[in-house]
Amino acid sequence: MEDSEKTLKRLLEASVLAPAEKQWLLRYLETTDTSELSDVMLRELYNKLAQQQPEDKGRTARMLHNIHEQIGIQPVVRRMTRVRTGWLAAACMACLLLGAAYWLFKSNREQPLLAGRRKQADSSFQQGSKPVGNKALLTLADGSTIVLDSAQDGNIAQQGSTRVFKFNGRLDYTSAVAGADSALFNSLSTPRGGQYAVTLPDGTRVWLNAESSIRFPTGFVGTRRRVEISGEAYFEVAKNKEKPFVVRVNEAEIQVLGTHFNVMAYREEPALKTTLLEGSVRFTSGGSASLLQPGQQLKMSNKGDIHISSNIDVEDVIAWKNGLFHFEGTDIKAVMRQLARWYNVKVIYAGTSPNESFHADIPRSATLPEALKALELTEKVQFAIEGETVIVKPR
Fold first, then answer.
1. Average pLDDT, stretch 254-273?
2. What is the pLDDT of residues 99-124, one digit of tens each?
3. Is 357 or 47 the better-scoring residue by pLDDT?
């Protein structure tokens, strides 16, 4: 039988890996102390994983991220034509999901790299200005607050019969008595540049994007499970046919039994968007109701107009949850609203803002200067940084 060392060498030399070989390579990385491997070997492993079509994007991206963190592989810019080819797009997405340091750009024609360098006024941004990451404030039923990014992991609060655990950027609510403490409400809020996840008492999992919040009871009683959100959140709702899950957002309600969906409801955005990945949801607003099927997205404008689109690429919608800015035909103001929330900066426009759409995938682990430089490579826009303000200029 071939030993691990020989198997690893054979797989690294192979041009394409079979599914079983890919799984072996992932298991090897998960069960091996990578600190014992040389940088050369880790780079070979990194390149091999990045080149293969990912059957398990999350697992592959975690491995890529771990290697990137260990040996500090520098970001690489890749430019492509607008047309995606199946295996190459999947491979690029795998390495981008958790900031694995590959950037993919798509445009109508090949474009040269910019020869010039933009001038930046603030050295702190020039040196890094990475987003904060797992940062949030937990407000308990009595009004007291816990700053989660500075709190130690473990049991951080007791709410009636419900214990609140913190571990590695996530909260878990565990109730010893089902249906207890219905009057106790907690809220979790993220600042600009922050994100957080929480598992509710019923097992529902929620991920909050930057500048978002969720209010929820520490125990669900009655005929419905109700929560309220602002900003953007991704839900994986625990199934319970007897007790529908209801999300209150702005003046609308989203009702589900057990499903996966994303809600984007920032006040500064022109429309509220609900995108369904799995199951079904009923969206209700102003007395009218709409039923969504997987792959559909509902947009409700600030005027209350509703439009439903089908065949949405749902993986693109939740790219933020997987550590990626995904811009697909996105105008500059929509792009900058996302960057402003993540990097906690102000944005002003000097002159007429460009009308072109942008196509780019950028890791959310990138620094602000790296993200702006990525957009400049489209040759449609240029930036200057003054203090904590980004100035957008047309080219």
1. 93
2. 333 333 333 322 332 223 333 334 33
3. 357
Alpha-carbon span 9 to 4, nearest angstrom: 9
Phi-psi region of 274 (alpha: psi -120 to 50; beta: other; left: phi over 0): beta
The whole-number average pLDDT for the span 221-249 is 93
303 and 324 assigned to the same domain: no
Rounded Cα gap, residues 363 and 103, in angstroms: 7
Q: Which two tokens stand for residue 111?
A: 């474009």
| Structural domain range at position 41 | 4-107
Does 40 have pLDDT greater than 70?
A: no
Q: What's the pLDDT tens digit per position in 295-317? A: 999 999 988 899 999 989 888 89
Question: Is the predicted pLDDT of residue 87 greater than 80, yes or no?
Answer: no
Number of domains in the chain: 3
Same domain, 171 and 283: yes
pLDDT of residue 70: 58
